[in-house]
Amino acid sequence: MKIYTRTGDKGKTSLIGGRVDKDSLRVEAYGTIDELNSFIGKAMTELDPGIFKDLLEDLETIQNELFDGGGDLANVMKERHYKLGEERIEVMEQRIDQLMEEAPPLEKFILPGGSPAAATLHIARTVARRAERQTVTLMKAEEDVPAVVQRYLNRLSDYLFVAARIVNARLNVPDNEYVRSAKVFRTDTKKGE
């Protein structure tokens, strides 16, 4: 089997149900989701399974969901069946809430970084935000774009932020606060009770 097809040599690519220019808004959006998925894969290689088994399971699930969401954006058929559902957002929100119980209190903005895996998760978070922005642009330009993908990416960036903080916390690496940050987050006073 040959991996190259030469069908894209003139600047066009195939979607599910059609062909478009490789620089179309649709291709930009799902291409950025692919980039995001790659950074998540890199972060996974930096996580010790003995310490981060739960996060590795989360991230593997997320990688599959990103394939679903990218495929949903690539689908331009008249009759479509989307793979990414609203229930995945609810599951992610529950997981974020669980991880926030473990996270150290947060009052100020933090700088991306800390351990290598946390830094990679922060990169993934920013790529998730870019993918979300590109999906919003696509939604404004075209009809029949599954809005669940945008909502999923929005929530995913929150998850990746919390996951990066958890990685640092479990490795006893403190968050590096932005020095000129005011106290912008309220700490949960009930957490210590």
TrEMBL record:
<dbReference type="Pfam" id="PF01923">
    <property type="entry name" value="Cob_adeno_trans"/>
</dbReference>
<keyword id="KW-0808">Transferase</keyword>
<keyword id="KW-0547">Nucleotide-binding</keyword>
<dbReference type="InterPro" id="IPR036451">
    <property type="entry name" value="CblAdoTrfase-like_sf"/>
</dbReference>
<dbReference type="InterPro" id="IPR029499">
    <property type="entry name" value="PduO-typ"/>
</dbReference>
<dbReference type="GO" id="GO:0008817">
    <property type="term" value="F:corrinoid adenosyltransferase activity"/>
</dbReference>
<comment type="pathway">
    <text>Cofactor biosynthesis; adenosylcobalamin biosynthesis; adenosylcobalamin from cob(II)yrinate a,c-diamide: step 2/7.</text>
</comment>
<dbReference type="InterPro" id="IPR016030">
    <property type="entry name" value="CblAdoTrfase-like"/>
</dbReference>
<keyword id="KW-0067">ATP-binding</keyword>
<comment type="similarity">
    <text>Belongs to the Cob(I)alamin adenosyltransferase family.</text>
</comment>
<feature type="domain" description="Cobalamin adenosyltransferase-like">
    <location>
        <begin position="3"/>
        <end position="166"/>
    </location>
</feature>
<protein>
    <recommendedName>
        <fullName>Corrinoid adenosyltransferase</fullName>
        <ecNumber>2.5.1.17</ecNumber>
    </recommendedName>
</protein>
<keyword id="KW-0169">Cobalamin biosynthesis</keyword>
